[in-house]
């Protein structure tokens, strides 16, 4: 079943235009849950871990539109690509004895035997916190009706790590923030948000440092406020970042129009001509072109295509698509080829739609 | 020389406050006894899952729901640190019913009432209940 999930870099529902998709790439909500019937992952035996997977499969079998697969039995490329598509967490990909329930539209993943027995995750395009939470909560209720859930009146949902106790809720959005990076404001925002209790890290090909243009913002605390309050606070933080990014983009265009246009058009030139390109450079150039498009320059890279490319150019996904392990040189060649193809297709689409005929 | 208050033989070299004893009394211990007590303390295991205090402090994770109460002092400290001082849950609970379940229960209650009204030949009331049933059925189609 994992093969089907990896046919396309984005599911149909992720490939739609969505609120604030100019800046917010995707929204994820996850709920951490454990059943009282088994010890937590830290003390779970091999036999118990397998029993939990089997019991979950039996209990959730009736869930309409869900499919199940053993993640630990998939090969490493498949697991990497699933992480790159954000359908599973890196921890689930590396743990032994793990399972995944996933909805047909790929919006809902229930990870079994991650750090907690169940990690319910919903993934939506753009900024859609409330909707993502609403869906996660529905799945949470289904699971609560089938399993006795570890819960304490004072501490709320009990989790393996006390950092998730209470609501077990972690919201995380992926943001494209080239304006804040190019104007050197990002470090200030990162520091400020950390003080307010939010974690923000760089994403995509840059390890965890903040030198890239993609950032993931998440809440740190999960206790002491209701889910709605946590989400409201979090939404404020995201909106503040969005406003700052919009202002930075506008300022860049006003102050350095020629320099900016020069840089962005050059990046477009490189992407449409390069024969070898690293993931790092590709991400940065694509970010430039996406910025150019959002500022109304004569290039076209809509948010969903940008997102598609970000996923499909990752090393795991690229090799999965190619069907075998590639050397780093082969990956650079393949990556450059895919970018040229996809950008050309986009240009052709624009021309047909633009009524040139 | 002050003797160790545990073995009564060796010379006491440290003053310790034992965690289990709530009173403020402190003990003077020798180097052998203090090491033994520390090992015992660290080796204490959760009766439910077997995780030791040492494991818990090393991993900063628990082994089961019982650990939260068995290692209360340690876990509360971690919670406060991770949760920026918060210690009380205000969110949802696992025993909350799903919308589907609630509506289904409502539906069977209404159907029972309808039956009774019809048996009592109270057709006006029955009509009202029938409409309520239809509306619940409509809601059910949306969950």
Task: Write up this protein.
Chain A: GO terms for molecular function: ATP binding; creatine kinase activity. Chain A: Pfam families: ATP-gua_Ptrans. The complex is a heterodimer of chains A (357) and B (143). Chain A is an alpha+beta fold. In chain A, 48% of the residues lie in helices and 16% in strands. In chain A, strand 4 (108-112) and strand 5 form a beta hairpin. The N and C termini of chain A lie far apart (43 Å). Chain B is mostly helical and 143 residues long. Helix content of chain B is 53%, strand content 4%. In chain B, helix 5 (99-119) packs antiparallel against helix 6. Chain B is rod-shaped. The A-B interface holds A 34, 36, 39-40, 42-43, 115, 137-138, 141-142, 144-145, 149-158, 160-163, 165-167, 169, 197, 220-227, 229-230 and B 48-51, 55, 59-65, 68, 75, 78-79, 82-98, 101.
Whole-number mean pLDDT of chain B: 88
Biggest pleated-sheet summary of chain B = 2 strands, antiparallel
Described by the principal axes of the CA atoms, the overall outline of chain A is globular
Secondary structure category of chain B: mainly alpha
Terminal-residue CA separation of chain A = 43 Å
Please give the structural blueprint.
The complex is a heterodimer of chains A (about 350) and B (about 140).
Chain A (H helix, E strand, L loop, with lengths): L1 H4 L18 E10 L12 H15 L5 E5 L5 H9 L5 H5 L4 E5 L4 E5 L5 E8 L3 H18 L4 E2 L3 E2 L11 E8 L1 H5 L3 H10 L2 E6 L10 E6 L7 H29 L1 H17 L5 H16 L8 H10 L2 H8 L5 H26 L4
Helix pairs in contact in A: 3-12, 8-9, 9-10, 10-11
Chain B lengths: L13 E3 L10 E3 L1 H13 L9 H7 L5 H6 L1 H11 L16 H21 L3 H18 L3
Antiparallel strand pairs in B: 1-2
Helix pairs in contact in B: 5-6
